[in-house]
TrEMBL record:
This is 2-oxoglutarate dehydrogenase E1 component. InterPro entries: 2-oxogl_dehyd_N, 2oxoglutarate_DH_E1, DH_E1, KGD_C_sf, ODO-1/KGD_C, THDP-binding, Transketolase-like_Pyr-bd. It holds the Pfam family E1_dh. PANTHER family: 2-OXOADIPATE DEHYDROGENASE COMPLEX COMPONENT E1, 2-OXOGLUTARATE DEHYDROGENASE.
Length: 940
């Protein structure tokens, strides 16, 4: 654009897009605009009343856009008017940025309105006389090109400072900001609902409040984590379902903690009140070995809407609050993949996460989850987040004590999600922002937040006395008539309902509750969903030990060729090329099959049978220890330029789907995601690999609360597999132990399998067994590091073709049984150390057994192997781990039972220690030497 007549011609309409972009760039980086424009904008900033804290926004000069339609280039305003017009646009922008700070959001009205100069007309130099002066409204959706300043300000306040306070101007996508403005500004933040819609809103408030009060009087003192004070959540959930169905949603998966959970179960998912009452009264069938409290339980149903059935699922959740969120995302992702995994599938399956105000800001799993929300292997096309913001957290009433940010929802700004703060006492505003949130998610496939600011009428639970810690707050709460009462009075005043109408709704619902029924039941019985998975074949109660894991040798050879067939003009790294060439020879039987090839063949055979395979973790494509190479990278192209090739995804046309994703640097959220995925998909082998086994420490809550106990508590079967590198090789306390002892301690009731395979054939059959048998149990595998390339841990193709997973591997050397006086039982890498030391010392009186499946322990098989050496007087358990760690304490009683008459049991291990391994290499070598000497020599 030419800069002629700069002083008089730059603000006419035809130039508006150019000028607004320049100003946006200037605010972001002044050096990015031409000198003459930078000088002009600098002068604007120096004018009296100019915004001192202006930030990039759009469009600053849009006020003049319409001028381009009115004629040729000409000067449109005098210099003084020019300054005021720009100031109007700055004022509009300030309300878009900061209006939420003045919004009427708190039902308790406890906070004073902060002083924000940028929202005052005087800050820009305006006087009362200017309020009647007309100005161009720019991009503000006022409804007219020009309006008096006073009317513009009033419209801004109605839009941004009413019951809705919206934050969105930090978003970098202009189209998304425009979209929000076009929906919020013309309506002034008002839903303009019909009388029928208003009655439905009141109905949702009434059933929410009435259920809580009914339970409060019927089950006095019992914990239920009441929703009273936050009943508008039920309004929001109703709108999620209605708007969701209207925009193509067919399934909704909900994750939430305990606050209001019973209310959501009954009034959103349609759980029969009688079922809930039975749980309160202890009448629920005790068909699970553990079970769980009622406010942790999940539920699913199919509900009817005007736009067709919608399947609802409320995920089971422990008291670890936000941990369920990535579990839900994983479940949703699996369901979306089942429908094709494209944008259409993501539009049909919606995740909804309900947070608490203190937890959403305080628990780091949310940051981890948000960080992968737009990545390839974890993105679900956007989540609707609902914060039940009772302004109190747990027992803390001062926000300074439970967060460092202004709003509890500020964490969502990291993914540029729009945030709707809304007064919970205004159900119409709650419904409106929920509708906008759903439509935004469906349009832009990204996260959106509804922050319902409400209060908590009772204590943290029904036995708590909140006046002890929040006396003034609870005086206001006690004086509050309740959201339902306020809205009912409003509708009566508007003539929408008769004076006795609200009370009649209460009477009707209480009568239904007395019968254990809902007032209106939207649940569809016996509805058959097209995309539902049948879990019945996998939930048998009896533990299934084996499956037919054999694969014909010809099939293995065929798949080996496919795994090593690399496209033309694909340049591999020299080391990788050598690995692939060796694997080709392994497939031909010319080289023994190593661990990496056996693992890839396990995946390949499952894929060829039609199973899916998903493997994720921080370095799974290559493998932390350079062994897997499931994803190959062209050395001449970056992988984001189609420079990667995945052999496992190119085996044959009708194969199962293969996914391999190097995850974000997270254990807790990623493992929770994979757990959720595995609970929704029984037909895929789902694998999470720790970069090092001890990194699973960061995901311990997932392991404790979901993986090991989900079936006992909730009846949730899951076939998730954990690969945890483990082994003592002098790498120090942080890279030696996968904390085997923790998994052993958590083992009971056939809840999972803990295995420590020692060779390539074992990992092949173990991974295949996980899918081919009709059972889904979690599998925890201690995987090796140095053994990955140890020739002794390799196998033949015949062992893959004709073998099976061996829970116990007996002595493989031809020892003379009667000479054996000591039997050593061990697991994992230490076996090869023991064998090498035995060979070096030429010992013939010691037999070595390998326990490959530590839990469930195969007593029968162990007894058979031990019985082969009738003269053995000593049974030794030898482990690399310190005495207080590893498998010893969990296995000691099993080994004691296995002893024959006259035999004694001993343990050889590193000394008990606080850390899992020493950090000094010399000390490691010394300990290793002492371990082997004691195991093979004189016992202490």
């Amino acid at each position: 654009m030419m800069m002629q007549n700069f002083g008089t011609s730059y603000l006419f309409g035809g130039n508006a897009p150019f000028v607004e972009e320049l100003y946006e760039n200037y605010l972001d980086n002044p050096a990015s605009v031409p000198d003459e424009w930078r000088e002009y904008f600098d002068k604007l900033a120096q004018q009296p009343g100019a915004a001192a804290r202006d930030v990039p926004h759009f469009p600053v000069i849009a006020a003049f856009a319409e001028q381009g339609k009115r004629g040729p280039v000409r000067t449109v305003v005098a210099a003084g008017d020019d300054k005021k017009q720009v100031a109007v646009l700055q004022l509009i922008n300030a309300y878009r940025f900061l209006g939420n700070r003045w919004a009427n959001l708190d039902p308790l009205k406890r906070q004073e309105r902060p002083e924000i100069q940028e929202l005052e007309p005087s800050f820009y130099g305006f006087t009362p006389a200017d309020l009647n002066e007309p100005f161009n409204t720019g991009s503000f959706q006022f409804g007219a090109d020009r309006a008096p300043l006073g009317q513009i300000i009033e419209a801004l306040k109605e839009t941004y400072c009413g019951s809705i306070g919206v934050e969105y101007m930090y978003m970098s996508d202009i189209a998304q900001k425009r979209w929000l403005q076009e929906r919020l500004e013309p309506s002034r933040g008002n839903g303009n609902y019909t009388p029928e819609r208003k009655k439905r809103l009141l109905d949702r408030l009434t059933v929410a409040e009435t259920l809580e009060r009914y339970l409060h009087t019927r089950y006095v003192g019992q914990k239920r984590f009441s929703l009273e004070g936050g009943e508008s959540l039920i309004v929001a959930m109703d709108e999620v379902i209605r708007t969701g169905a209207a925009t193509g949603v067919q399934e909704i998966v909900i994750g939430m903690a305990h606050r209001g959970r019973l209310n959501v179960l009954v009034n959103t998912l349609g759980k029969a009140p009688k079922m809930l009452f039975d749980e309160f009264e202890g009448k629920k069938a005790q068909d699970l070995s553990s079970g769980d409290v009622k406010y942790h339980m999940g539920f699913s149903s199919d509900v009817s809407t005007d736009h067709g059935p919608v399947h609802l699922t409320l995920a089971f959740n422990p008291s670890h609050l936000e941990i369920v969120n990535p579990v839900v995302e994983g479940s949703v992702y699996a369901r979306q993949r089942r429908r094709g995994g494209d944008d259409a599938a993501k539009a049909q399956i919606l995740p909804v996460l309900i947070h608490g105000d203190a937890a959403v800001a305080g628990q780091g799993v949310n940051q981890e989850m948000l960080n992968f929300s737009q990545t390839r292997g974890y993105g679900t096309g956007g989540t609707v987040h609902v914060v039940v913001n009772n302004q109190i957290g747990f027992t803390t009433s001062d926000p300074r004590d439970y967060r460092s940010s202004l709003y509890c929802s500020d964490i969502f700004k990291m993914v540029e999600a729009p945030i709707f703060h809304v007064n919970g006492d205004d159900p119409e505003a709650v419904a409106l922002v929920t509708q906008l949130a759903l439509e935004f998610r469906q349009t832009f496939k990204k996260d959106v937040v509804i922050d319902i600011i409400c209060f908590r009428k009772l204590g943290h639970n029904e036995q708590d006395e909140p006046m002890v810690t929040q006396p003034l707050m609870y005086k206001k709460i006690q004086a509050h008539p309740g959201t339902r009462k306020l809205y009912a009075d409003k509708l009566v005043a508007q003539g929408v309902l008769s004076a006795d109408g609200p009370d009649q709704i209460i009477k009707d619902f209480r009568a239904a509750l007395d019968q254990g029924k809902l007032l209106s039941d939207p649940v569809l019985s016996n509805y058959k969903r097209q995309h539902a998975n049948d879990w019945a074949p996998y939930t048998n109660k009896k533990y299934t030990e084996l499956g037919n894991t054999k694969v014909p040798k010809k099939e293995l050879q065929r798949l080996a060729k496919r795994l090593t067939a690399i496209p033309e003009n694909f340049t591999m790294h020299s080391r990788v090329k050598k690995i692939i060439e060796d694997r080709a020879q392994m497939g031909e039987g010319k080289l023994p099959v190593d661990w990496g090839m056996a693992e890839n063949l396990a995946y390949a055979t499952l894929l060829a049978q039609g199973y899916g395979v998903r493997i994720s973790g921080e370095d799974v494509g290559r493998g932390t220890f350079f062994h897997r190479h499931g994803v190959l990278h062209d050395q001449n192209r970056e992988k984001w330029d189609a420079g990667s090739y995945i052999p496992l995804a190119n085996l044959q046309e009708d194969q199962g789907n293969f996914q391999s994703f190097d995850s974000v640097l997270s254990e807790e959220a990623v493992l929770a995601f994979e757990y959720g995925y595995a609970t929704a998909e029984p037909n895929e082998l789902v694998v999470w690999e720790g970069q090092f086994g001890d990194f699973a420490n960061g995901a311990q809550v997932v392991i404790d609360q979901f993986l090991c106990s989900g079936e006992a508590k909730w009846g949730r079967a899951c076939g998730l597999t954990l690969l945890l590198p483990h082994g003592y090789e002098g790498q120090g306390p942080e890279h030696s132990s996968a904390r085997l002892e923790r998994y052993m301690q958590l083992s009971a009731e056939f809840n999972w399998e803990v295995c420590y395979p020692s060779n390539a054939a074992q990992i092949f059959h173990l991974l295949r067994r996980q899918m081919v048998r009709k059972q889904r149990k979690p599998l925890v595998v201690m995987t090796p590091k140095s053994l990955l390339r140890n020739p002794s841990a390799s196998c033949s193709l015949d062992e893959l073709a004709n073998g099976t997973f061996q829970t116990i591997i007996g002595e493989t050397e031809k020892l003379e049984a009667k000479k054996v006086t000591r039997v050593i039982a061990c697991a994992g890498k230490v076996y090869y150390d023991l064998v090498a030391a035995r060979k070096e010392r030429k010992l013939e009186n010691i037999a070595i057994l390998r326990v490959e499946q530590l839990y469930p322990f195969d007593d029968k098989r162990f007894d058979e192997e031990l019985s082969k050496f009738p003269n053995a007087k000593e049974l030794v358990w030898c482990q690399e781990e310190p005495l207080n760690q590893g498998a010893w304490y969990a296995k000691a009683h099993r080994l004691q039972v296995a002893l024959k008459k006259g035999q004694t049991l001993h343990v050889v291990a590193r000394p008990a220690a606080a850390a899992p391994a020493v950090g000094y290499l010399a000390k490691h070598v010394e300990q290793q030497k002492a371990l082997l000497e004691e195991a093979l020599g004189k016992l202490n």
